[in-house]
Amino acid sequence: MHTVYILKCADGKPYTGCTENLEERLQRHNNGHVPATENRRPVKLIIYTVFFDKYKAFEFEKYLKSGSGRAFINKHLI
Asked: d(Cα 38, Cα 40) in Å, to the nearest integer?
């Protein structure tokens, strides 16, 4: 299973990612082992969605990182 997740970073901005192990990935974010969030800690999990198909997960992550996906996140999730 693959999980697409959205974090709220200390700077108030969201971070979107995809992983097979959400718990381990969150630890990596909060321990500073992910370059994109190492200076934006602590991070807080806002929402996650689980996919059985990894390609669908990657498509959804890509959408959330697009202009309309970011607008959706800002309007409905944060």
From this structure: 6
The helix (run of H) or strand (run of E) holding residue 50 is strand 44-51
> What is the rounded CA–CA span in Å between residue 49 and residue 5?
6
For residue 76, the SS3 value is helix
Q: Determine contact, residues 45/5, Cβ cutoff 8 Å.
A: yes
pLDDT digit string, tens, across residues 44-64 = 999 999 999 999 999 999 999
The string of pLDDT tens digits covering residues 61-70 is 999 999 999 9
Give the integer Cα–Cα distance in Å for 74 and 5.
14
The pTM of the full predicted model, rounded to 2 decimals, is 0.93
Residue ranges of domains in the chain, CATH in brackets? 2-76 (3.40.1440.10)
